[in-house]
Design goal:
The chain is built from 4 helices and 13 strands. The chain has 237 residues and is α+β, with helices and mostly antiparallel strands. Pfam families: FRG1.
């Protein structure tokens, strides 16, 4: 492998890549929009959210933020699957009010700081607590302003978001591990619990217990316990 190939490989492993799933929105993020000219979200030192010009977005396969002001950190709200918050380098949250004004100066999380992203064919759309979508609005005299008062999703409401490659790989690995754990238990059930006309007698325990047992190194023991419980329940009926 020559030096150019090593550089490309390092960039893909440690650089920024296109986010394409909700799980990719957890961690450092770089928000862009393919407007003319392209822009990226930038929070200045006074916590003002700006649509900063981003030259050559289309020409760069893996655009990256140039300064920390252009990075927002995404977090999924506890107990939800599609509600997120986005925090700036100043630890202030992205928010929008009922008039569609978007700011990044809130110190605490409330309804106005919650966003519901959805995937589109071209990127992501972000809906606020009022049911309105984040958008890029061209202003008189040139330039763009970020608002959140659109009723529907179109070009102006679709953003390209980039995440760090290491976080994207981590999310995919955790998802794969979760799938493998469930499949292994199902295979165990099929193998050892074939009574009852071929029906599968699955346990009622939360799947989190199985995941926890695997992390603690007692996965086989947990499977055996679950099998014995189902067998005991069967003979007690």
């Amino acid at each position: 492998m020559d030096s150019e190939e090593r550089t490309t490989s390092s960039t893909l492993e440690n650089g920024w890549v296109r986010a394409d799933a909700l799980d990719d929105l957890v961690g450092p993020l770089f928000f862009t929009h393919p407007s003319d000219p392209p822009i990226c979200f930038t929070v200045d030192d006074n916590d003002r959210l700006l649509a900063y010009p981003l030259p050559s977005l289309a020409e760069t396969p893996h655009p990256e933020p140039l300064i920390v002001n252009q990075v927002l950190v995404g977090s999924r709200l506890l107990g939800t699957s599609n509600s997120f918050t986005f925090k700036s380098f100043n630890s202030k949250y992205l928010s929008s009010d009922k008039f569609g004004v978007v700011e990044c100066n809130r110190e605490a999380i409330g309804g106005t700081e919650e966003w519901e992203p959805t995937t589109t064919e071209a990127g992501f759309a972000f809906k606020n607590a009022m049911g309105k979508f984040l958008m890029i609005d061209e202003i008189a005299g040139g330039g763009f302003k970020i608002r959140a008062d659109s009723e529907e999703v179109g070009f102006c409401e679709t953003f390209r978001v980039y995440c760090q490659a290491r976080f994207k790989r981590k999310n995919k690995f955790e998802k794969k591990e979760k799938t493998n754990s469930g499949k292994l238990e199902l295979d165990n059930v099929k193998k050892y619990q074939s009574w009852g006309g071929g029906k599968l007698h699955l346990t009622e325990e939360d799947s989190h217990q199985l995941k926890r047992a695997k992390q603690d190194g007692r996965f086989a023991e947990a499977l055996l316990d679950r099998r014995e419980k189902v067998k005991a329940d069967r003979y007690c009926k």
